[in-house]
Design goal:
- This protein is of the alpha/beta class.
- It folds into three domains: about 220 residues, Rossmann fold; about 70 residues, Arc Repressor Mutant, subunit A (Orthogonal Bundle), CATH 1.10.10; about 90 residues, Roll (Structural Genomics Hypothetical 15.5 Kd Protein In mrcA-pckA Intergenic Region, Chain A), CATH 3.10.290.20.
- It is built from 16 helices and 13 strands.
- The strands form two sheets. It has an eight-stranded mixed sheet with strand order 3-2-1-4-5-6-7-8, sandwiched between helices. Strands 9-13-12-10-11 form a five-stranded mixed sheet.
- Helix 9 crosses helix 10 and helix 9 packs across helix 11.
- It is globular and about 75 Å long.
- The C terminus is likely disordered.
- The protein binds zinc ion (ZN).
- Zinc ion binds next to loops.
- This is NEDD8-activating enzyme E1 catalytic subunit.
- It catalyses: ATP + [NEDD8 protein] + [E1 NEDD8-activating enzyme]-L-cysteine = AMP + diphosphate + [E1 NEDD8-activating enzyme]-S-[NEDD8 protein]-yl-L-cysteine.
- Belongs to the ubiquitin-activating E1 family. UBA3 subfamily.
């Protein structure tokens, strides 16, 4: 048996090089010393959102970087096609929840780390669940899910009376994303750096090829394939639905695309490219996930310990042609609905919760449907589940002012649905509510009741 003290010192030798010594690039609040490592291990709580290609890497990287209190949330079960890159899973795990298997595998290999899995949708957790973590790490492939977690993390942010963000309420996030040979890693410090929503234009909706290009001036193999898929199929097989999982259908598209490519002298149409274009398959590459996840875990370590300044604030990696990496500093959108101080609503003290919900749903900046309302963690009205709806329904006829314990000015959280690119998605919005008349009286009182 190895000496446990020796083993533990040897195990953290590299981490200690970062945490025991001062340096020129450290944060202002950095205090080197053995206490820092034990604080990291004891107190830093990280949530990993997603247990797929990036999530598996993130959990492993966090566990090996000294974090010991980890949780992971993912709603998916393991599929055979995951096994080439989601390296914590084996053939016999197919069908089991990703979060549970990933947590179990990392705990088996890295002693001392504790990982709590959550096998559910991110929206199924109460918003307060997310407030329990020091850092939230995102290993997601969906824009909607990122947008939701971002809104949750930003909802904890509070502003002082001069509209400056309050440091203690900032919930830092590290976000990774990969697509084939490309990837990004970013640090989001709500109130300081741009949040996901401030730079939503970085993720434009997927553009389909214009039909006129497909019909008249194809230039690439993909154009020929989409011509066969989107135009020719309907012309020839009127009424018959195309099934991307039917090999005969795919073969038909392939041969039509080949004819088209020959006509225009375009090289490169193959059966596998046909599948890729029609099913919009972007190959997932294990090494890209590893690189991006390593960058994210390192940023989280810097955030937790201050051992170096974090990246500011958006790293892109491109291994498609040669290798390029670049860090870009993006700026906050000061009018952002998500990370800003929140839309300000001036209300009469007599307004009922029902009327308030109608006001919010019709507000031109908010435009959300099915609004549920919470105040300081208290559910004022919930649209779902039915049992909560029933419990909170009687509040609808009560004045909002009373439901907020006669607070003259405070933050209210609204969850609901918004339509984005013809898709309905969950959203969370922060509102600042001020009751008319009340605030003035309070100020006069504190000024001596003049
Ligand atoms: Zn923002």
């Amino acid at each position: 048996m190895a000496n446990p003290d020796f083993e533990s010192n040897a195990r953290w030798r590299d981490l200690d090089k970062l945490l025991l010594r001062p340096g020129n690039l450290v944060n202002e609040n950095f205090e080197p010393g053995p206490q820092l490592r034990s604080d990291l291990q004891e107190y830093a709580r990280v949530l990993v959102v997603g247990a797929g290609g990036l999530g598996c890497e993130l959990l492993k990287d966090f566990a090996l970087s000294g974090f010991r209190n980890l949780e992971v949330i993912d709603m998916d079960r393991i599929e055979v096609t995951n096994l080439n890159r989601q390296f914590l899973f084996r053939l016999q795990d197919v069908g089991r929840p990703k979060a549970e298997v990933a947590a179990q595998r990392v705990m088996e290999r890295v002693s001392g780390v504790n990982i709590v899995p959550h096998f559910c949708r991110i929206e199924d957790k109460e918003v307060e669940f997310y407030n329990d973590f020091n850092i939230i790490a995102l290993g997601l492939d969906s824009i909607e899910a990122r947008s939701y977690i971002n809104a949750v993390a930003c909802s904890f942010l509070e502003y002082d009376s001069e509209d400056n963000p309050i440091q203690e309420t900032m919930k830092p996030m590290v976000d990774g994303g990969t697509e084939g040979f490309k990837g990004h890693a970013r640090v989001i410090m709500p109130g300081v750096t741009p949040c996901f929503e401030c730079t939503i234009w970085l993720f434009p909706p997927q553009v389909k090829f214009p039909l006129c290009t497909l019909a008249e001036t194809p230039r690439t193999a993909a154009h020929c394939i989409e011509y066969a898929h989107l135009i020719k199929w309907d012309e020839v097989n009127s009424g018959k639905a195309f099934d991307a999982d039917d090999p005969e259908h795919m073969q038909w598209i392939y041969s039509e695309a080949t004819k088209r490519a020959e006509l225009f002298g375009i090289p490169g149409v193959t059966y596998s490219l046909t599948q890729g274009v029609v099913k919009n398959i972007i190959p997932a590459i294990a090494s890209t996930n590893a690189i991006i996840s390593a960058a994210c875990a390192l940023e989280a370590l810097k955030l937790a310990t201050g051992c170096s300044k974090t990246l500011s604030n958006y790293l892109t990696y491109n291994g498609l042609e040669g290798l390029h990496t670049k860090v870009t500093e993006f700026f906050k959108d000061k009018d952002c609905l998500v990370c800003g101080p929140g839309v300000l609503l001036e209300l009469d003290t007599s307004i009922t919760l029902q009327k308030f919900i109608e006001l919010v749903e019709e507000h031109p900046k908010l435009l959300l449907a099915k609004a549920s309302v919470t105040h300081r963690g208290k559910n004022l009205y919930m649209q779902a589940p039915p049992v909560l709806e029933e419990m909170t329904r009687s509040n609808l006829n009560l004045p909002l002012y009373d439901l907020m314990d006669k607070t003259p000015k405070d933050v209210i959280h609204i969850t609901g649905m918004v339509s984005k690119n013809d898709k309905k998605t969950s959203c969370l919005r922060k509102l600042r509510v001020v009751f008319k008349g009340v605030d003035v009286v309070t100020e006069m009182d504190t000024a001596g009741g003049a």
